[in-house]
Amino acid sequence: MRLVDRVAQSRTPYIAVCRSTGLQTRLSGAMDFAADAANCPIRYVLSDELTRLCAALAYSKGAQSLACTDLVRIPAERLWVEWAYAPWRNELDRYGFPPSSDQFGNYGRRGALLTASRDGRRGHVKTFWCTGDAAVDVAASSMYADFDFDASERDNGQTAQSQALRVVNGPSDSNSTIKMCFSFDFEPTWAEYYDRAQLSAAHRQEIEHHSLGTIALDVPVLLAFFLLLNTRQGLPQQKSQLERLNKSRIRDGKTPLLEHTEVLAPFPSGYLSTRDDSGSSGRRRPRLHHVRGHLVRRRNELFWRVPHLRGNSSAGVLRTRTVTWAFDQPRDRNTC
User: Fold this and answer.
1) Taking Cα atoms as reference points, which of 15, 13, 10, 12 lies closest to residue 34?
2) DSSP code of 293?
3) How far is CA 89 from CA 102, 106, 141, in A?
4) Which residues contact 108 (CB under 8 A, 6 or more apart)?
5) Radius of gyration of the chain (CA)
6) Among 47, 252, 245, 5, which Cα is nearest to 138's?
């Protein structure tokens, strides 16, 4: 079952229980967003190939620059995006992210519910995930993200929310999209819960870092997806065909599944063929290693030097080393 259906059918409240006092606190969870997921007019489900492509594009060299921000627009005022966990995590492993200690396995899914302004330049993101088949295996992030793709021009990326958090890629990060355009904060019930706990500064920071990890890593993939969706060629799409299945589910007393759009990669998966990429110079061949992609923009075109393996004859050679995407001239940012 798709994650969007799991969220839409969620009826289990999220209750936190204090170990010392037994006090129960009702916090926002997937159940509180069930109606939003069910009534969302646009639902995108990414194929595994597109998930890998978006993750690879998101973490290529040059991808963190604000140079591409003017090309990104959210295509609707309300929409849902989801993808499988395994291909996403596999790409993160390639780029050196610490090994995951979660329980997703190969069956988990991740998703995001977005609301946006009419021009698609500002909005709100909430993330979700599932790790198993039980109702309690569906979760919602305790944090949300607000975004403004024109923040750098509007107010130099400053936010009126004094407690909002920013994510940086390192000490030298001065203009990445996620830092300049995204701010993160706890959902109100979670913020009140942690405020009442009177945590030490170190404990509070630890919780903030953990909570950011449930949402911040999804943002680059979402940005890459919307960037590709806005190219002149767009992305291959196909509507779900659930009529017969839903008739059967209704006969069995089950909730019908939600219609959605499957979104595919713009070219076949797999960058390697069977020829040697190491040359025949006679020099000792380097060990097999992953070469990071590189993204460059020239006006309204993006050139992506695709990531690939290099160093061993059995690894093969790239079918193509560069992918080019063209964009229409960006509209005036003041036009809705």
Assistant:
1) 10
2) P
3) 11, 10, 18
4) 84, 85, 86, 102, 129, 130, 131
5) 21
6) 5
Burial class (CB in 10 A: 0-12, 13-18, 19+), 38: middle
Which burial class, exposed, middle or buried, applies to 304 when counting CB atoms under 10 A from its CB (0-12, 13-18, 19+)? buried
Q: 220-240, pLDDT tens digit by residue?
A: 999 999 999 988 888 999 999
pLDDT tens digits, 63-89: 555 467 888 899 999 999 999 998 998
Residues 11-57 have pLDDT tens digits of: 999 999 988 788 899 999 999 999 999 999 999 999 999 999 898 88
The H or E element containing residue 203 is: helix 201-213
Residue type, 241: Q
Question: Residue 57 contacts by C-beta under 8 Å, 6 or more apart in sequence?
Answer: 63, 224, 227, 228, 293, 295, 304
Number of residues written out for the chain: 336
d(CA 105, CA 262): 22
pTM: 0.81
Residue type, 20: S
Under 8 Å between Cβ of 154 and 148 = yes
**Residue with token string 């597109």:** 50
| Number of other CB atoms surrounding residue 103 within 10 Å | 10
Distance CA 118, CA 123 (A): 10
Beta strand residue intervals within 119-260, DSSP E? 122-130, 138-148, 182-186, 237-239
CA 173 vs CA 63, 169, 180: distances in Å: 13, 6, 10
Q: How far is residue 167 CA from its own chain's centroid?
A: 15
